[in-house]
């Protein structure tokens, strides 16, 4: 395990009210700078797990630590600071209806105390990248679902957060835009952001060589990236080959003629020994 992962879950369980546990015994690390997908059927608990990760819900048991700190004992007044280090793309976008697209996206920068003239160009460039260069002054209500989703994504990534949590971030866009957004996430990841993306889109998952966390019946299964699985397969094959060779060698030795084995001299066998053998012209005279 990573000595100081960004997020660590240790035997975490979660239930809503008095209902059954919907997440059970979750133990995993999100290493610093890692990129992972979260998949699972509808209702498996992906959104609930993401809510636990961004501290919008509490576990019913187990331990969650954030940047090495126990989330359960974090003072409430530290939460806003902590949340500022995390960008979130909510499934339902949560845009501010009275602000235009530009201001929605710039909000995290404004909250961080940056000046408009310092970030205006970056925000405009980001909006152009997500295909909204001509919608900067539009209000969210006038946008399509896919456009609102892209505003939500731009807002989550604009401040280069330490962690990005995205719930179905490509659910409302066409495959081409989905690829473009994935590119945006991988670029952010290259800059050091730890990323977790919940998605049903298996085509998206296949585009990257990243670990896949799958929720099913409350349990989490983590599949390592393709390259790691390939290396594990190659190591297993090499091991099996070496074992087969060792076995074949053992069989060869067992089947070899006795003459090949070192001879043990039997002292009682004097008649045929070099000293007792009188057929060799020994000195009898
Ligand atoms: N606020 C809530 N109160 C009670 N139960 C809830 C609440 N939110 C979610 N659940 C239940 O928890 C389970 C997991 O829901 P969750 O939304 O986390 O799943 P999901 O995998 O994100 O689903 P989807 O892919 O459809 O978005 C479901 O059975 C759901 O009914």
TrEMBL record:
GO terms for molecular function: ATP binding; ATP hydrolysis activity; transmembrane transporter activity. Transmembrane segments: none annotated. Residues 236-248, 275-285 have a biased composition (Acidic residues). Its main location: membrane. GO terms for cellular component: plasma membrane. InterPro entries: AAA+_ATPase (IPR003593), ABC_transporter-like_ATP-bd (IPR003439), ABC_transporter-like_CS (IPR017871), ABC_transpr_LolD-like (IPR015854), Cell_div_FtsE (IPR005286), MacB-like_ATP-bd (IPR017911), P-loop_NTPase (IPR027417). GO terms for biological process: cell division. Pfam families: ABC_tran. The keyword Nucleotide-binding applies. It is found in: Cell inner membrane; Cell membrane. Homodimer. Forms a membrane-associated complex with FtsX. Part of the ABC transporter FtsEX involved in cellular division. Important for assembly or stability of the septal ring. This is Cell division ATP-binding protein FtsE. It comes from Maricaulis maris (strain MCS10). The gene is ftsE.
